[in-house]
């Protein structure tokens, strides 16, 4: 059993980015003796702790002394204390015994309490809601409560439970029905919340000067439909900043992606912004700030909890997910030989909003020597000043960003050649940006261990820089790993969708939508190419 559990946890960790909850059901174990079954149960819990699963479910009906020992040995694993009231149980949701059991689980040290009941009638769905409200009304801070009815008659309460409801998947088939098995899918639950008007259909869009070929609508709309949401994402007919006034009057506006040239300009029109956006000095996402009908504005924490609900727009909140996409691309391709250390050097080409995000991504990864080059020197110097000022109070370095004045200059002798290179040259550059046909000066490519090159432009996908780096890789044998612009588009889009909706993104589906709808110089990808890229990105 230990080997089987270890193998399954390994499979999940390799293929999924979600936390793992280990729950043990001994009702059909086939172990006859109670002491043998109990010993096996705690052996499995102990194995779960060895594997450091994120959550471990413990049966509150088991021996309290043994449970306390599990809780003490939990390490970073969070304990979910669970009790299932069978259909024959005399304890009802309205009884004080339910509150007592919750308090005992808290006293035991459980981080979350899960109480379930096999429903025998639909009235119990209202009763469990009343019990949940009673727990939420307790004074002080308490462990989060998961409470709902299980079985066919309990599906309504499963929809309205907001924390870790068990769900199934259409691909899962069972020969016999077990009343403890989940009966609704995640999509079923979300659709039911929209159909019951708990959640509202919202409108999303993208703002920028050149957004006609944006892949964001395919990504976002595909994810909305897949997840059961009634939201829509579109490209405005006249993409200009004037549209913000129109959006502010629409109570169903949910948020917008922002691309060049307004990443920095809109930054100064916000009522609030994230610490990431403040550090970068640019945004790529705006979201509405709402308030109660009696006036005022919800706190940022309350704004997050009301993400999928309509209401008057009182102001704008800004965030930046570009740095998340860049950091993910770097991390995915950075070899162990080039792991971040005190000697690591990064290089950023460009000085716009994306360049700011690239510098911030490197700083977040621990890189403290970053060079920037841009055709317009003054813009590069402005970006360097911004981050050096920020770094003086945030990290253990004063000058983290230095400017390379000319591509004709040699690489500085006091720093290692870069092993992380991010090109932020836009596909449709304005007069101040570096040219779209940028290639790396050969004297800057002296890293003996190669490194990773992230290209953010994706029109065309095979840029002059990527062609050059493939030739250099062949000629020198150095391990330069290349990441093209589509990879970053996907990663930042996934982070943005999660921010806008408050839900985990369907990563594979959003990736598939981009790959199927991208049209390059040679047309669309064939299925073989799509599958190869899916395998590489969604592992």
Structure description:
With 539 residues, the protein is α/β, with parallel strands linked by helices. The protein has helices at 2-15, 34-50, 64-72, 96-108, 123-136, 155-160, 186-195, 216-227, 243-248, 275-280, 300-305, 322-333, 353-365, 377-394, 464-476, 485-501, 507-517, 527-537; strands at residues 21-22, 55-59, 78-85, 112-118, 145-150, 203-207, 232-234, 253-258, 272-273, 285-289, 315-319, 346-349, 370-373, 401-403, 420-423, 451-455, 480-483, 519-520, 523-524. 39% of the residues lie in helices and 15% in strands. Helix 8 packs antiparallel against helix 17 and helix 12 (322-333) crosses helix 16. The longest helix is centred in the last third of the chain and has 18 residues, at 377-394. It starts with a helix and ends with a helix. The model has no long low-confidence stretch (mean pLDDT 90).
Q: What is the tally of helical segments? A: 18
The class by helix and strand makeup works out as alpha/beta
CATH architecture label name of the largest domain: 3-Layer(aba) Sandwich
Taking all Cα atoms into account, the compactness measure Rg is: 27 Å
Secondary structure layout plus pairing:
Layout: H1 2-15, E1 21-22, H2 34-50, E2 55-59, H3 64-72, E3 78-85, H4 96-108, E4 112-118, H5 123-136, E5 145-150, H6 155-160, H7 186-195, E6 203-207, H8 216-227, E7 232-234, H9 243-248, E8 253-258, E9 272-273, H10 275-280, E10 285-289, H11 300-305, E11 315-319, H12 322-333, E12 346-349, H13 353-365, E13 370-373, H14 377-394, E14 401-403, E15 420-423, E16 451-455, H15 464-476, E17 480-483, H16 485-501, H17 507-517, E18 519-520, E19 523-524, H18 527-537
Parallel strand pairs: 1-2, 2-3, 3-4, 4-5, 6-7, 6-8, 9-11, 12-13, 12-15, 13-14, 15-16, 16-17
Antiparallel strand pairs: 8-10, 10-11, 18-19
Helix pairs in contact: 8-16, 8-17, 12-13, 12-16, 16-17, 17-18
């Amino acid at each position: 059993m230990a080997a089987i559990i270890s193998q399954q946890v390994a499979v999940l960790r390799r293929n999924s980015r979600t936390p793992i909850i280990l729950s043990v059901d001994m009702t059909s174990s086939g172990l006859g003796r109670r002491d043998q079954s109990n010993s096996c149960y705690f052996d499995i819990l102990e194995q779960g702790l060895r594997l450091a699963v994120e959550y471990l479910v413990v049966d509150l009906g088991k021996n309290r002394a043994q449970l306390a020992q599990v809780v003490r040995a939990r390490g970073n694993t969070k304990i979910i204390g669970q009790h299932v009231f069978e259909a024959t149980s005399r304890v009802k949701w309205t009884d004080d015994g339910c509150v007592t059991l919750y308090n005992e689980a808290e006293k035991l040290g459980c981080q979350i309490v899960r109480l379930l009941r096999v429903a025998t009638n639909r009235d119990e769905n209202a009763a469990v809601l009343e019990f949940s409200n009673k727990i939420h009304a307790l004074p002080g801070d308490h462990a989060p409560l998961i409470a709902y009815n299980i079985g066919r008659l309990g599906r309504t309460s499963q929809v309205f439970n907001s924390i870790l409801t068990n769900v199934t998947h259409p691909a899962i088939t069972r020969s016999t029905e077990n009343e403890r098995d989940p009966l609704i899918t995640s999509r079923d639950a979300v659709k039911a919340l929209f159909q019951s008007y708990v959640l509202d259909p919202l409108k999303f869009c993208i703002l920028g000067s050149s957004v006609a070929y944006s892949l964001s609508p395919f990504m976002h709309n595909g994810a909305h439909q897949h997840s059961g949401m009634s939201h829509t994402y579109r490209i405005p007919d006249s993409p200009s900043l004037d549209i913000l006034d129109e959006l502010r009057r629409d109570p169903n506006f949910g948020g917008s992606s922002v691309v060049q040239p307004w990443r920095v300009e809109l930054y100064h029109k916000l009522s609030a912004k994230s610490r990431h956006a403040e550090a970068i000095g640019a945004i790529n996402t705006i979201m509405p700030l709402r308030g109660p009908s009696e006036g005022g504005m919800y706190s940022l924490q309350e704004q997050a909890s009301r993400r999928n609900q309509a209401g008057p727009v009182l102001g704008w909140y800004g965030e930046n997910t570009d740095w998340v996409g860049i950091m993910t691309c770097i991390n995915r391709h950075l070899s162990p030989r080039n792991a971040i250390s005190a000697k690591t050097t990064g290089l950023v080409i460009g000085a716009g909003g994306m360049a700011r995000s690239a510098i911030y991504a490197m700083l977040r990864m621990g890189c403290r020597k970053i060079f920037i080059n841009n055709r317009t020197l003054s813009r590069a110097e402005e970006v360097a000043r911004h981050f050096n000022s920020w770094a003086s109070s945030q990290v253990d370095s004063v000058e983290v960003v230095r400017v390379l004045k000319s591509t004709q200059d040699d690489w500085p002798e006091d720093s290692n050649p870069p092993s992380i290179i991010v090109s932020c040259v836009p596909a449709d550059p304005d007069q101040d940006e570096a040219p779209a046909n940028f290639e790396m000066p050969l004297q800057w490519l002296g890293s003996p261990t190669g490194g990773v090159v992230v290209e953010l432009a994706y029109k065309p996908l095979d840029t002059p820089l990527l062609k050059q780096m493939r030739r250099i890789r062949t000629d020198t044998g150095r391990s330069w790993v290349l990441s093209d612009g589509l990879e970053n588009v996907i990663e930042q889009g996934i982070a943005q969708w999660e921010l806008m909706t408050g839900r985990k993104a369907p990563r594979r589906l959003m990736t598939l939508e981009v790959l199927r709808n991208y049209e390059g110089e040679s047309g669309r990808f064939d299925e073989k190419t799509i599958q190869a890229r899916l395998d590489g990105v969604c592992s």
